[in-house]
Specification:
- By secondary structure, the chain is an alpha/beta fold.
- Helix content is about 20%, strand content about 35%.
- It has one domain (about 25-209): Rossmann fold (3-Layer(aba) Sandwich).
- Strands 3-2-1-4-5-10-9 form a seven-stranded mixed β-sheet.
- The protein starts with 10 loop residues before the first helix and ends with a strand.
């Protein structure tokens, strides 16, 4: 039985251990179709409880999930039979050029600036030449932008240590100097809150190594 919050090495382990799966449903991945070959292996960074892994599988890909939370991976195992790796996006246990397709969905925004730079370097290292990188992050137009304790520019702490960085349109490509931008798309969805329905704003980038 969990008796103390501080026994966890990171706040995401705490959240998954206490609450179980955090994300409902399946995150669609059909926007990758036509860019990545059917059945291709796609590395999902910060896979959490497997919401996007399930979307990748439903879209016809062969996903592999990486997350540093053991409790998240336990939840992800319930979603499907895909390979799961416990690791940190800033120090990945993969060789250079190991992946032809990498997805980073709401993982870079959970890091401080130094961590984002280190993670981007690692992503470029494991991404194969001519490989594709898919990134999705919340934008500065999101209704939660500015909510919580400010720890860095456009980065805020909420919920006992969980970070959220809100990206400008041209910010993400600057993290990847060895990649070129294929496309960038603004994505909007609606979320119910105690104060009514709010707009969630995201950027969706496709980059090529």
């Amino acid at each position: 039985m969990v008796k103390r919050w501080d026994q966890f090495r990171n706040p995401w382990d705490r959240e998954y251990a206490m609450r179980g799966p955090l994300w409902r449903g399946v995150a669609e991945a059909t926007h990758l179709q036509g860019l990545v070959a059917p059945g291709a292996r796609v590395l999902d960074l910060g896979c959490g409880d497997g919401k996007f892994l399930a979307g990748l599988g439903a879209a016809g890909f062969s996903p592999c999930g990486l997350d540093f939370s053991r409790h998240a991976l336990v939840a992800a195992r319930e979603r499907g039979p895909w390979p799961l790796v416990r690791g940190d996006v800033r120090r990945m246990p993969f060789g250079e050029g190991a992946w032809a397709a990498v997805a980073a969905r709401h993982v870079l925004g959970a890091l401080l600036e130094k961590g984002r730079i280190t993670a981007a370097q690692e992503i470029e290292r494991v991404l194969r030449r001519d490989g594709l990188l898919f990134v999705e992050e919340f934008s500065t137009e999101d209704f939660r932008a500015g909510s919580g304790r400010r720890v860095e520019e456009r980065t805020f702490e909420r919920n006992r240590g969980i970070l959220a960085h809100y990206f400008e349109k041209d910010e993400l490509p600057r993290l990847f100097p060895h990649c070129s931008t294929v496309s960038v798309q603004a994505v909007e969805s609606r979320q119910r809150t105690d104060e009514g329905t709010k707009a969630r704003h995201r950027w969706r980038w496709v980059l090529r190594r």
